[in-house]
Design brief:
alpha/beta, 8-stranded mixed beta sheet, 34% helix
Length: 398
């Protein structure tokens, strides 16, 4: 039998949320798209609350709205963030910095969306997309031809396209096939995530505490009187948190949030997850007829909650540049990819430097640094122009 060859304009390797958004965008632009994934199963709907959530900014909102995926979200499970309170610790003398939607001249700073809700909405939108083919299989090797690139699968079939988009996560197979180098550093921390019911209403406020020996604690608003915990904890502490009952974890958190949120109760059924925190900087986001997006292109510390937003920013930029390319250039033309690299360089580098710098700054126990950063937070809180620029950038506005 002759092995099957799938011909398309764009092949997307990886079917996470960023890959699905890219597939939708290019298919809706009239291009033939193949998505290579290991399963064709749709994201299941569950009445329980997902412990993995994302703080989507206005760039993500605009992209998902244009793809008709935002309207497919279950909005009863989406919580708008109208204010953010950042504290340098839990003492009265520690620095504080606050942002609010009113000061940013918007109704929401961000939206907290569950992973399952987001992926289910994208799956729903993909059902109606033309020119979109889901290929189930395992990639084996890549071959470059004069005007195309080919992905050979384990079953002998292949996908031939003008452009390969690597959306296959931090351990990207596509990136490895292109021999793109990587700078990697572990933060010695793990992200601990779970959900709680809170005694008092959160009023759409996201809270974040930087505590030297304990890491970074964030409580994000969920619909109703619920909050999502994202604790960037040192490895040893993360192991302790996982070994304790969630009621004990709630008691730890109440030392910081009792006055604002009241007592915390684990959301049933109880669930807790953990993932390692790293900084990953590939030496390039492009190669010959290849573009990397999402975690395949960059992994940052989650303290600002912008990992997914960076990925959606990649999609929006690449989609625009491919759609507006000159008629004589195909999707994988070197000039088009170079424009993508330049377009994303500033945003990605700024987010990498900001998150890495803050993680280092607030991880130091040195007394002079602790005093300086508390003074800096308090000073910044009194400078509305600079605060406005910071929140505007966080929302995705240039």
């Amino acid at each position: 039998m002759t092995a099957q060859v799938h011909h398309c304009d764009i092949c997307i390797v990886g079917n996470g949320a960023v890959g699905k958004a890219a597939a939708l965008g290019f298919a809706q632009a009239g291009l033939r798209v193949a998505v290579l994934g290991r399963s064709a199963a749709l994201t299941p709907v569950s009445p329980g609350w997902d412990v993995r959530v994302f703080a989507l900014n206005h760039v993500a909102h605009k992209l998902l709205s244009s793809l008709k995926a935002w309207d497919a979200l279950d909005m009863q499970r989406v919580a708008p963030v109208t204010e953010m309170q950042v504290k340098g610790g839990n003492a009265a003398t520690d620095g504080q910095l606050g942002f609010d939607a009113y000061g940013a001249r918007t109704e929401e700073l961000a939206w907290i969306v569950e992973d399952r809700n987001l992926n289910h909405a994208l799956d729903t939108a993909m059902k109606f997309a033309q020119n979109l083919n889901l290929v189930v299989g395992q990639a084996k090797q890549m071959f470059w031809h004069a005007d195309s690139v080919e992905v050979l699968l384990e079953d002998g079939s292949s996908i031939q396209s003008s452009l390969i988009i690597g959306a296959d996560g931090s351990q990207s197979w596509v990136r490895g096939q292109c021999d793109i180098g990587l700078d990697y550093r572990s933060y010695g921390q793990k992200g601990v995530v779970t959900n709680f019911e809170c005694e008092k209403p959160h009023h759409g406020v996201a809270h974040q505490w930087f505590v030297e020996e304990l890491g970074i604690i964030a409580l994000l608003p969920l619909p109703g009187n619920r909050v999502s915990l994202v604790w960037s904890a040192p490895d040893a502490l993360a192991a302790t948190l996982l070994s304790e009952p969630l009621s004990q974890l709630a008691a730890r958190l109440e030392a910081y949030c009792l006055s604002t949120l009241g007592h915390l109760t684990p959301v049933l059924p109880e669930e807790i997850k953990v993932f390692p925190l790293t900084l990953m900087r590939p030496h390039s986001m492009i190669a010959e007829r290849v573009a990397l997006i999402g975690d395949a292109a960059h992994v940052v510390h989650p303290l600002a909650g912008h990992g997914m937003n960076l990925g959606f920013g990649d999609v929006a930029s690449l989609l625009e540049l491919v759609k507006t390319r000159e008629d004589h250039r195909d999707c994988g033309d070197a000039r088009v990819l170079e424009r993508y690299r330049r377009a994303r360089k500033e945003d990605v580098l700024m987010m990498q430097l900001t998150t890495d710098g803050l993680a280092r700054l607030f991880g130091s126990n040195l007394a002079p640094i602790r005093v300086a950063r508390n003074l800096g937070l308090n000073l910044l809180n009194r400078l509305p122009v600079i605060k406005g620029k910071l929140i505007s950038h966080a929302m995705g506005n240039r």
